[in-house]
Design goal:
The protein is α+β, with helices and mostly antiparallel strands. Helix content is 32%, strand content 24%. It binds zinc ion (2 copies).
Length: 274
Amino acid sequence: MREYREFNAERRSRIPAALWPFWAPDPETFCRWRVQLECDCVTEILTPGNEVLPVEQQWYDPVHQAPLPAGQVLCSHDNSPPAPYRDIAEWGERREVNFPADAVEPPDWMDAETWAVIRHDEPHTSAFWSVTLACGHVTEVIAPDLEWKPADGSQRARAKSLRKMKADFEELWASDPDAQAEREREHTRRMLADGWPSPRPEHLCYTCSWAQWIVAYQRVGWLVPRKPEPEQKRPRPPSRKGLERRLFQAEAEAEHLRKRLAELDEGSASAEAR
Ligand SMILES: [Zn+2]
Ligand SMILES: [Zn+2]
């Protein structure tokens, strides 16, 4: 509760009050659930209201600013599996990013020779496309050029340079087996077999390393506990004395009604006789 209030206070300082019901709602609207994830972690989550089950709810991936598949949450571990390659299933929105000219000096992690080849000596603009991968996670890929659009498909390397690349990689793998990790080597093989496509039809999904399915859930209750419903006043069982009194009254009433009927019958009989 305190955590939510602190989180919401910070959030509300950035959001106009009129939008609070949508983007920073009161804690009263949330329901608490204890959930078990496929990584075996047990944690607690909140859902808006108690109608939607945790496995039906879509949580947000703040890194890629996209919803996760329903029923998945992020859970980071020191021993999280490495990011797998996933095929691109769908192309989304495009955005352009402007970059300043690169520094003349190579960064620490690159040798001067390679830097000289890839360095941009002038400011440049690149197009990024948001993509949904086969796992349902969203990431962003860089387009080969500003004009490229998904309908253009991937460009392939020329046969001659493809042959050279294949030979170079085979030589590298033979001379230095540790040059590429198994995952990268397999990826490289697939790309070479596919003609070295650009953009790549598959990408690393870092979200897959963290995303965990909810495998079990248990409702804890409302984040703000509700006041208990006032107990309905049940009528007390009648006492023997009370019942005797009601029976006596009912019998007296019945006796009275029988008398009235008898009087009526007598009256109509004497009228007929006359
Ligand atoms: Zn976990
Ligand atoms: Zn993924």
